[in-house]
Amino acid sequence: MPSSPAEPAAEAVSTRIAEPALAQFIADVLRACAVAPEQAQAVAAALTEASLRGVDSHGARLLPHYAKVARTGRINPRAQISVRHTGPGTAVLDADDGFGHWAGFAAIDEGVALARSAGIAAVAVINSSHFGAAGCYALRAAAAGCVGLVLANSDKVVLPHDAIVKFHGTNPLAFAAPVAGGRPYLLDMATSAVPWNRVQDYAVRGLPVPEDAAVDAEGRPTTDGKAAEALLPLGGVRYGFKGAGLASMLEIFSAVMTGMGHCGELLSMAGPDFATPRRLGQFYIVVDPGRFVSQAAYDAGMASYLKALRGVPAQPGREVMAPGDREWRVERERLATGIPVPGQLQASFEALAAELGVPAPAWRE
Amino acid sequence: MPSSPAEPAAEAVSTRIAEPALAQFIADVLRACAVAPEQAQAVAAALTEASLRGVDSHGARLLPHYAKVARTGRINPRAQISVRHTGPGTAVLDADDGFGHWAGFAAIDEGVALARSAGIAAVAVINSSHFGAAGCYALRAAAAGCVGLVLANSDKVVLPHDAIVKFHGTNPLAFAAPVAGGRPYLLDMATSAVPWNRVQDYAVRGLPVPEDAAVDAEGRPTTDGKAAEALLPLGGVRYGFKGAGLASMLEIFSAVMTGMGHCGELLSMAGPDFATPRRLGQFYIVVDPGRFVSQAAYDAGMASYLKALRGVPAQPGREVMAPGDREWRVERERLATGIPVPGQLQASFEALAAELGVPAPAWRE
Fold first, then answer.
1. Nearest to residue B250, comparing CAs of B166, B172, B159, B149?
2. Which one of A127, B47, B99, B163 has the largest count of C-beta atoms within 10 Å of its C-beta?
3. Among residues 89-128 of chain A, which lie with CB inside 8 Å of chain B?
4. Interface test with A, best of B256, B286, B293 (most A CBs within 10 A)
């Protein structure tokens, strides 16, 4: 298996950009939008690493959106994080309406520090905003030798099971764990069958949407991208009570346990209101594996499991992969060849550079 | 939606039994198998509450199996739990090859105690065995005012994505949270689309297995129960990389982080070896919501979310439910009318009573 399937090539690749140049451009643009350097840096890091791993839906393409909301009131470009410790293993981090990426990295760092003393930690982030790919923060825990679990919600686009109207977000769950001598284990998934932007992309290209993934305005399954109004939860029409249940669990963590809005209350990421902070909650759990097994036992157990999983006989022409395997493969390729940039995104990057008076991106080809 | 669909009526109900009578009979049988009273009590509680909630696959029907393995060496009937505290929020609980239910309740109690001081806790259970319905332990945390997350693996019956051979277990995840003035929120799900015993049940009755749930010996999807050799992960052929990813995450928690066997290494629950302890790992996380929001904010947030979810317009003739709603509805019915017992189970209970010299179950009708 691909650990997650490759996203369809939305548009012809127009050019490529090296990782450092992309990170530099994103930070330049955001700083030019009066975003404080540490926030700009965090967003640049999160978008760049998502693009590197092939998670294009949550990578560079989000920059024009973020550059907009940094200037329209939704995001507080000069936000100050404040952390309230509430127990040996717990904290509440107030993102002050800043970027969710910046809050996410800070929350994981706080969680790692707490887990180092308490063995496990939970950090609830309040007054946050969209944070890009959830995997970024789980990976930060893994880089520190810990296991990280990221639980978040988003605005409504997914049907609850047996419903006809969208309610849950694509509510992501990410989990990462260290792997000795290799890139971390990484599960980063939405609890819908497919992402909404994949449906939109198929619609634009006049292609049928994959089956059992989207519904029309009456809540009937459809493969017509133009008729699609919402997504089915993971599990589809038959088994969607499980995907919906997971989405729901993520609401409890990210909304009920943080005091922030649930999926049905959040302002849409896509507007039309770009002036009001969205006040999202996110929930981070960090665990120190060393409290349960020795480093040697952990490393051996992980290696043994991953080897066994990857060794399971595959369908003809396929490959059984562990979560993250595809992402790290894409990362290796893109570190070598650059991150592909579709024509429309290239144009909007050039326009942003001109508008804000920052150096145009250093394209690779 | 049903929060989870009703299991098909496997066999004609022969009789019914009241909850206390069932718990009494289970405990009597296990004690007669030389199982220590506290272990017998824990198994009786777990099976009875699962049966009450309608989770018949993990309820009373497991008693004959447990009565067997308590006497064949797999289970240590006189096990002694030992707990090693490894941090303000962490502990390792050695189940000494006793019943997983007994270890599970003890782990959650330990987790609640740790979470009361540290705010969050993780307890890794080692040298454990099958623990019935994962929801039982999550609910025990909710009953104590905490949020509980239960992560476990099991022996192989589910295909990894794109595989042709089974590898993962049905690896369950359970999550429960308190609800003011009502029964707790409860998500209790396997990461396969359907349970294996449902496939077996359809096969026995000559009915087609639900689509996109099972595969034959070559890993090809099948609706022929007799040809079914393994299960597809949640998400089926198309989106099963997500269900497989979740199953895999549960392996990291319950095997890698406990030092116990992964799915591919575990002895099968169904034998043929019933003499060797299975040495399962299970992982429990308990969080005190009061470290993040006030009790009033938590209660209001939960009520608001559940009301909004249940209020989402449903498909004709259906109902949008929250996770747990169906289970509590079944519990209300069964508290009133008794737990249904199929004829075959009734006969095996009567046979156990005669064999072990314990009073026959007090059937209700």
1. B172
2. B99
3. 89-90, 92, 117-122, 124
4. B256
- Whether chain B has a CB inside 8 Å of the CB on A150: the answer is no
Please give the radius of gyration of chain B, using alpha carbons only, rounded to the nearest integer.
20
- Complex ipTM over 0.85: yes
Q: CA B4: distance to chain centroid?
A: 14
Please, what is the Cα angle at B116 between B111 and B120, to 5 degrees? 60
Which of A140, A283, A15, A360 lies closest to B177, judged by CA?
A283
For residue A185, the tally of other CB atoms under 10 A from its CB is 27
The Cα–Cα gap between A102 and A72 comes to: 18
* Residue A14, Cβ density class (10 Å: 0-12 exposed, 13-18 middle, ≥19 buried): middle
Structure tokens at A201: 């992309």
Residue B289: list chain A partners with CB under 8 A. 256-257
Contact A277/A127 with Cβ under 8 angstroms?
yes
Q: What is the mean pLDDT of each run of 10 residues along chain A (365 residues)?
A: 46 88 98 98 98 96 97 98 98 98 98 98 98 98 98 98 97 98 98 90 89 96 95 97 98 98 97 98 98 98 98 97 98 97 95 98 89
Residue whose C-alpha is closest to residue A58's, from A196, A249, A184, A214? A196
Pairing relation of β-strands A90-94 and A120-128?
parallel
Two tokens at A108? 């994981």
pTM of the model: 0.97
Going by C-beta distance under 8 Å and a sequence separation of 6 or more, which residues neighbour residue A252? B147, B175, B177, B185, B302, B305
Structure-block tokens of residue A191: 């609890």
The crossing angle, in degrees rounded to 10, of helices B135-143 and B37-52 is 100
Residue pair A244/A238 in contact (Cβ under 8 Å)? The answer is no
CA–CA separation, B312 vs B325, rounded Å? Answer: 15
Tokens matching residue B147: 């949020």
Residues 187 to 226 of B: which have CB under 8 A from any A CB?
187, 189, 193-194, 210-213, 219
Counting beta carbons within 10 angstroms of the beta carbon of residue A68, is it exposed (0 to 12), middle (13 to 18) or buried (19 or more)?
Answer: middle
The Cβ of residue B298 has, within 10 Å, a number of other Cβ atoms equal to 24
**Cis-peptide, bond into residue B272, ω within 30° of zero:** yes
The beta strand positions in B111-171, using DSSP E, are: 120-128, 147-152
Structure tokens at A272: 């039309």
Closest CA to B210 of A191, A240, A208: A240
- The answer to whether B238 contacts A313, with C-beta atoms less than 8 Å apart, is no
In whole angstroms, what is the distance from residue B224 CA to residue B170 CA?
Answer: 20
CA distance, residue B267 to nearest chain A CA (Å): 15
Q: φ, ψ for residue B242 (rounded to 5)?
A: -80, -45
Instruction: List the beta strands (DSSP E) in A162-222.
Output: 172-177, 185-190, 214-215, 221-222
